[in-house]
From TrEMBL:
<feature type="domain" description="Acyl-coenzyme A oxidase N-terminal">
    <location>
        <begin position="28"/>
        <end position="154"/>
    </location>
</feature>
<dbReference type="GO" id="GO:0005504">
    <property type="term" value="F:fatty acid binding"/>
</dbReference>
<comment type="similarity">
    <text>Belongs to the acyl-CoA oxidase family.</text>
</comment>
<dbReference type="InterPro" id="IPR036250">
    <property type="entry name" value="AcylCo_DH-like_C"/>
</dbReference>
<keyword id="KW-0285">Flavoprotein</keyword>
<feature type="domain" description="Acyl-CoA oxidase C-terminal">
    <location>
        <begin position="460"/>
        <end position="640"/>
    </location>
</feature>
<dbReference type="InterPro" id="IPR055060">
    <property type="entry name" value="ACOX_C_alpha1"/>
</dbReference>
<keyword id="KW-0274">FAD</keyword>
<dbReference type="InterPro" id="IPR029320">
    <property type="entry name" value="Acyl-CoA_ox_N"/>
</dbReference>
<dbReference type="GO" id="GO:0033540">
    <property type="term" value="P:fatty acid beta-oxidation using acyl-CoA oxidase"/>
</dbReference>
<keyword id="KW-0560">Oxidoreductase</keyword>
<feature type="domain" description="Acyl-CoA oxidase C-alpha1">
    <location>
        <begin position="264"/>
        <end position="425"/>
    </location>
</feature>
<dbReference type="InterPro" id="IPR009100">
    <property type="entry name" value="AcylCoA_DH/oxidase_NM_dom_sf"/>
</dbReference>
<dbReference type="GO" id="GO:0005777">
    <property type="term" value="C:peroxisome"/>
</dbReference>
<comment type="pathway">
    <text>Lipid metabolism; peroxisomal fatty acid beta-oxidation.</text>
</comment>
<dbReference type="InterPro" id="IPR012258">
    <property type="entry name" value="Acyl-CoA_oxidase"/>
</dbReference>
<feature type="binding site">
    <location>
        <position position="160"/>
    </location>
    <ligand>
        <name>FAD</name>
    </ligand>
</feature>
Length: 643
């Protein structure tokens, strides 16, 4: 059979190397696909949805986006986004759409196949609508939600402080959630969310007092149209302040929110979504790099023998296989965090805010660590593909641009780690005071009761405990050093700043302990075949061992790990690389990412890399004529000038 590719080219046969890789598989890739999707029915629904949208010629590109101007890219993205979400709306009205479809449209999978350089409506659905739902009263939801959900208005999210992060859609949105300082009865009440009209609904011209535009080109996400926004004596009705939590009465009386952290509900939601998206983008990158590595042959491993597949080199396996494992670790963490977010949101509706700080701390550190790891991993995948990975048709540069953006939007990663560290410092003081801790920091109790590290255990559970020992040790050290500085006469604020390197490091260590532990616990819940369970266990072990070796100094300092243990872990890692090697292509096949979504000349399912590279080169406007006019205008006179 032939495989339909990103550019609608069909080859009748797969690469022989790819076919041989799939024959080596020791497990059924479809079983893993069903597991990741949530069951065979979910897989079928997803595939049918992909077929429905990706077969629509109006939603697919005629010309590679890299050959368009900045203005053309934006206009094309708006055209496609309007058609895309109109189709989504029609399916919803016909009973064929659900929230899962919206998630796919906004995700790093199906949505990114259609809107490759960012979704111009993403902030409308991911921040504007959820903020109204989470922060608005029932009356405000009734007034705004229908219009927003039906795209009668397009919203964005803005913070007013000059120089602070914001999400303005410069030329797209006509309304915004503006997070601004509230002053009433002569007092500043802190930041609150307001709905502000930015542009006229008919003409789209900026409203009086509104200064708005876009900020220019960026490394990636240029179709998102980030912008600037200024206000000059802009007035809005009192009712435009979202008042589910805090309120301003008609006489100006301020009614305080039960908790100032309730304002951050939307940001926590977005951080959960970011972890999901990073896992999706990374799964695309490793699929591309692994398939390419199965086809690309280079150098002689043994004199006189044919050039081996580059995936046979241990160094190539070391670049790629831990990142396959990271895909699963992030994906499982995203699932766990999503469930926790929904549970705690339900508790908030009942007035129970006990676990809100824990959710905030988890969302902050997981967003930070996963986006940083994801960006680095995608760049590693690009480098693993050599010069071909540098080409835009590999889709690795664009994928990197989309993920590295997540390191700074919705909270710069260092700032978010410090948010988590603040929670961890409080948890440490609770532990030392004998107060019961929430589940994700319960491991701190053992660090309080014992000054010695636990004995190293050469097992998966032993590595989980070692990660917790490292996190606890770094948390304890940061708390001790901050207290020492305060006792020495430094203000608490300066002590915090002076200890901030250790604080970010302890937050990262805490997050890595969460990721490893969650991977192990998730694996224990699966009811799968022995063959698949073995493969998943190998990936879980690889992820855990890899991060011990990456942070070996921390493990030698804060856990019972010895130098001999590190040597044994290196051997364990190399053994795992060899065990995973025969299944590498089948594992990424299990991610079930169709060629249109991969959008890569290097990563198509049939492995016909070199044919596709030639096809992509032929699309360059420079190749439409044998001699470019610059030859006659500039180059020929230069060559004849006899310098």
């Amino acid at each position: 059979m032939g495989f339909k590719t990103t550019k609608n080219v069909v080859y009748n046969k797969c690469s022989e190397d790819i076919e041989n890789e799939r024959k080596k598989s020791t497990f059924d890739p479809l079983e893993l696909t069903h597991l990741l999707d949530g069951g065979p029915e979910k897989t079928l629904e997803r595939r049918e949805r992909e077929k429905l949208f990706l077969s629509d010629p109006e939603l697919m590109d005629d010309v590679p986006a890299e050959y368009l101007s900045h203005k053309e890219k934006y206009e094309l993205s708006i055209k496609k986004a309007c058609k895309l979400f109109k189709k989504v709306s029609q399916l919803r009205d016909q009973g064929g759409g659900d929230m899962e479809m919206f998630k796919q449209m906004l995700s790093g999978m199906l949505g990114s196949a259609i809107l490759k350089d960012g979704n111009p409506f993403a902030l409308h659905y991911v921040m504007f609508v959820p903020t109204i739902m989470g922060q608005g009263t029932l009356e405000q939801q009734a007034l705004w939600m229908g219009r927003a959900w039906n795209c009668e208005i397009i919203g964005t999210y803005a913070q007013t402080e000059l120089g602070h992060g914001t999400f303005i859609l410069g030329h797209t949105a006509n309304y915004a959630i503006v997070v601004a300082q509230l002053y009433t009865t002569g007092a500043c009440r802190g930041i609150h969310p307001f709905i502000v009209q930015l542009r006229d609904e008919d003409t789209h011209k900026p409203m009086k007092g509104i200064k708005i535009g876009e900020i220019g080109t960026k490394l990636g996400m240029n179709a998102t149209n980030n912008g600037y926004l200024g206000f000059d004596k802009v007035r809005i009705p009192r009712e435009n302040m979202l008042m589910k939590n805090a309120q301003v009465l008609e006489d100006g009386t301020y009614v305080k929110s039960p908790s100032d952290k309730l304002t951050y509900g939307t940001m926590m939601f977005v951080r959960v979504v970011i972890v999901q998206d990073v896992a999706s983008y990374l799964s695309k990158a490793v699929t591309i790099a692994v398939r390419y590595s199965a086809v690309r042959r280079q150098s002689e491993l043994k004199p006189g023998e044919p050039e081996p597949q580059i995936m046979d080199y241990r160094t190539q396996q070391y670049k790629l296989f831990p990142n396959i494992a990271s895909c699963l670790a992030m994906r499982f963490a995203a699932m766990w965090l999503w469930n926790l977010y929904n549970n705690i949101t339900s508790e908030l509706e009942e007035g129970d805010m006990e676990r809100l700080p824990e959710l905030h701390a988890l969302a902050c550190c997981l967003k930070s660590v996963c986006s940083a790891d994801g960006a680095k991993a995608i760049e590693t995948c690009r480098l693993a593909c050599g010069g071909h990975g540098y080409m835009t048709c590999s889709n690795l540069p664009a994928t990197y641009g989309l993920v590295t953006a997540a390191c700074t939007y919705e909270g710069e990663n260092t700032v978010l780690l410090l948010q988590t560290a603040r929670f961890l410092m409080k948890a440490w003081h609770q532990a030392t005071s004998g107060i019961k801790l929430t589940p994700t920091v319960a491991y701190l109790q053992s660090a309080v009761t014992s000054d010695t590290s636990r004995h190293w255990e050469h097992s998966l559970q032993g590595i989980v405990r070692a990660h917790q020992d490292v996190a606890a040790g770094k948390i304890k050290l940061a708390a001790t050093n901050m207290e020492r500085r305060i006792r020495g006469g430094i203000s608490p604020e300066d002590a915090w700043n002076n200890t901030s390197i250790e604080l970010t490091q302890c937050a990262e260590a805490h997050c890595r302990a969460i990721l490893v532990n969650n991977f192990v616990q998730t694996l224990e819940t699966f009811k799968v075949s022995d063959s698949l369970h073995l493969v998943l266990t190998q990936l879980c072990e690889l992820y855990a061992v890899h991060w011990v070796l990456q942070k070996s100094g921390d493990f030698l300092r804060f856990s019972g790990t010895s130098r001999d243990d590190i040597n044994n872990l290196q051997t364990w890692l190399e053994t795992l690389l060899a065990q995973i090697r025969p299944n590498a292509v089948s594992i990424v096949d299990s991610f079930d990412i169709c060629d249109e979504v991969l959008s890569s000349a290097l990563g198509a399912r049939d492995g016909r890399v070199y044919e596709r590279l030639f096809e992509e080169a032929a699309k360059s406007p420079l190749n439409k004529e044998p001699v470019n006019k610059s030859f006659h205008k500039y180059l020929k006179p230069f060559l004849k000038s006899n310098l």
